[in-house]
Specification:
The structure holds two protein chains of two kinds. Chain A is of the alpha+beta class. Among the domains of chain A are: about 30-65; about 115-245, no CATH class. Helices cover about 35% and strands about 20% of the residues of chain A. Chain A contains seven helices and 19 strands. Chain A has a four-stranded mixed β-sheet. In chain A, strands 13-14-15-18 form a four-stranded mixed β-sheet, covered by helices on one side. Chain A has a two-stranded antiparallel ribbon with strand order 1-19. The N and C termini of chain A lie far apart (about 65 Å). The model of chain A is unreliable at about 60-80 and about 80-95 (pLDDT under 50). Chain B is about 70% helix and about 0% strand. The model of chain B is unreliable at about 175-180 (pLDDT under 50). Chain B has two domains: about 1-90, Rna Polymerase Sigma Factor, Chain: A (Orthogonal Bundle), CATH 1.10.1740.10; about 95-180, Orthogonal Bundle (Arc Repressor Mutant, subunit A), CATH 1.10.10.10. Chain B is globular and about 50 Å long. Chain B is mainly α. Classes of the chains: A alpha+beta, B mainly alpha. The interface between A and B is large, with 53 and 65 residues.
Chain lengths: ~375, ~180
């Protein structure tokens, strides 16, 4: 075509010649797909209205409670706390699927949510609704020496029944692109769900890669679609690389439903101070995460002594042998690790021991979150 | 099958799909959005008052569905871009040409590429007026505009599209460059 100039009439003529593009589906296919979509919209609508109703009930209960608060507040608080613990304990006890969480010490009553002293590989898996990304730790194979092989082994060991997408990495391979483990190449097969048109999937994809590489000690990721450089993500465009900077995160509770295990989940947003992180762990309001620090625990003081952190609870803070108390401390220990601390001493509270942790003694920060009992 | 759906499909499906395809420029996305149009139409069919023609009413719903789609896309993109540490921000690649366009002469392929650079409103007018063949008054009905606004937007859109095509053609490389096919 040699013509470089057109009149407006020419443009109109060419516009009228634009080809007809047909829908390749049959009428029946379209109708059925429409019905499916309609069901999803209705279901989502029902969930939203249920949430609105629950919020409204909570709001009126709070108003009602605030009217006769003063005299019975201490008793109410204790009962409330008991209920809070019951909910978590019920989740813990009722679920046969909890068995997939590994207890690091057979004497522990509650399965720990952190890895203290084993070699593990961390894989960050999306939940089944593709709304959160949860890092889980799989024991490293004693027979595999390269990180790539360890990752592959870990992928194959992931158990089902987690409430997480344990097949997420089936079509993704990781390879170390530098001798010092800082550069990683991520190869994604064309059939991976990230190539669907769902922007939520793009977000969890990037978060899961960022989190997995972060735990590998990587700082940079190069993307490949099969063997071709770059990845074309429908919602944002073509991407060749991603920097994995060290973001300091807080840890919340995540549980898809009571029949699945509860996990410690890193915040999506980074925090600049540990005080802010702890505050968010107590005040978190979200449809996905739950606060990991109980409302009945009050932090009086935080002291930093080099790489050692001292957290002082008020004497009235309610800590006990429950799973919720243990996991709260574990979430705080993991958060301390994010901020570069090597050990933490918890002081105060109304008890001397929470699970395996003794208050008043220095506790080493964990190696990784959410150990799994593998296949 | 719902008889209203059956009737609407027979009369207007091609128009709706064609409009959505040229607006969002992605077959799968157009397929998804056209279903959304039917859901909206079937939910409000009883309230259609007949003030405009059925065809322009359906096209106006399709336009709103496309506006919602672009709004959501923009907010997701901003959210994703803001959440990660990029070595280089993602680049939006030129999309693969749909088969129907790739089989046409270069001038049509060039126009398809340049249509993307028109604003949403400009593209709406060009698609409805020239690709769908609606009159000025029908276009005004579908867009909920006055006829004079349609005419002004049409004039600016044609001028802009012409400029874009001339600039692209003058760069000289476009017709040698192999544009991928769907």
């Amino acid at each position: 075509m040699k013509k470089f100039q057109w009149s407006e009439d020419d443009i109109q003529v060419v516009l009228k010649q634009m080809p007809l593009v047909h829908d390749r589906r049959s009428k029946e296919e379209i109708y059925n797909q429409m019905l499916k979509k309609k069901k999803i919209i209705r279901k989502n609508g029902r969930i939203v209205s249920a949430l609105v109703s629950v919020a409204a009930v909570c709001f009126f209960m709070m108003i009602g409670a605030s009217l006769n608060l003063s005299s019975s507040s201490k008793k109410d608080k204790a009962e409330e706390h008991e209920n809070e613990m019951k909910v978590l304990m019920n989740a813990e006890e009722s679920s046969p699927k909890q068995a997939v969480m590994m207890s690091t010490d057979s004497a522990d009553k509650v399965a720990s949510r952190v890895v203290k002293d084993r070699k593990v590989v961390v894989l960050a898996l999306p939940d089944l609704n593709r709304k959160a990304v949860i890092p889980v730790s799989v024991s490293a194979s004693p027979n595999e020496h390269s990180r790539e092989r360890q990752l592959q082994f870990a992928k194959e060991q992931l158990p089902g029944q987690l409430g997480l997408d344990n097949h997420w990495f089936d079509r993704i391979t990781f390879s170390n692109a530098s001798g010092d483990q800082t550069e990683w190449a991520v190869h994604v097969a064309k059939k991976h769900p990230v190539f669907s048109n769902d922007p939520a999937v793009t977000t969890v994809f990037l978060s899961s890669i960022e989190e997995t590489i972060r735990w590998l000690g990587g700082t940079n990721v190069q993307f490949f679609t099969e063997h071709k450089k770059g990845i074309n993500l429908p919602s944002i465009g073509r991407l060749e690389s991603l920097r994995v900077s060290h973001k300091k995160r807080a840890y919340y509770f995540y549980q898809s439903d009571p029949s699945h295990p509860l996990f410690l989940a890193p915040s999506t947003e980074p925090f600049s101070t540990i005080e802010d992180a702890f505050q968010s762990m107590q005040r978190m309001k979200s449809a996905i995460f739950r606060p990991s620090i109980s409302q009945h625990v009050h932090i009086m003081d935080i002291q930093k002594q080099g790489k050692h952190l001292i957290v002082q609870f008020t004497p009235s803070s309610v800590l006990n042998e429950s799973a919720a108390s243990q996991w709260m401390l574990e979430a705080m220990l993991l958060t301390a690790r994010e901020f570069g601390f090597h050990s933490v001493t918890f002081l105060g509270g109304n008890t001397e021991q929470v699970g395996p942790y003794r208050l008043g003694e220095s506790i080493r920060v964990p190696i990784a979150p959410n150990p799994l009992s593998t296949r | 099958m719902d008889s209203v759906f059956d009737e609407l499909y027979e009369k207007y499906h091609h128009d709706l799909f064609q409009f959505l395809f040229y607006m969002v420029r992605d077959r799968e996305q157009a397929e998804d959005l056209v279903q959304e149009v039917y859901i909206k139409v079937l939910n409000s069919y009883g309230r259609f008052e007949g003030r405009s023609s059925e065809r322009t009413w359906l096209l106006s719903i399709a336009r709103h569905v496309a506006i919602d789609f672009f709004r959501k896309q923009r907010s997701w993109r901003a959210k994703i871009i803001g959440s990660f540490d990029w070595t280089a921000k993602p680049i939006q690649d030129p999309q693969a040409l749909p088969e129907e366009v790739a089989l046409q002469k270069e001038e049509i392929q060039l126009m398809y590429q340049c249509l993307e650079r028109c604003t949403f409103d400009q593209r709406s007018v060009l698609v409805l007026r020239f690709i769908q063949g609606l009159s000025v008054s029908e276009t005004a009905e579908a867009l909920g505009w006055t006829e004079s606004k349609v005419k002004t937007t049409q004039h600016r859109a044609l001028k802009h599209l012409r400029q874009q095509m001339e600039e692209e053609a003058a760069k000289g490389g476009w017709h040698h460059e192999k544009i991928p096919m769907e």
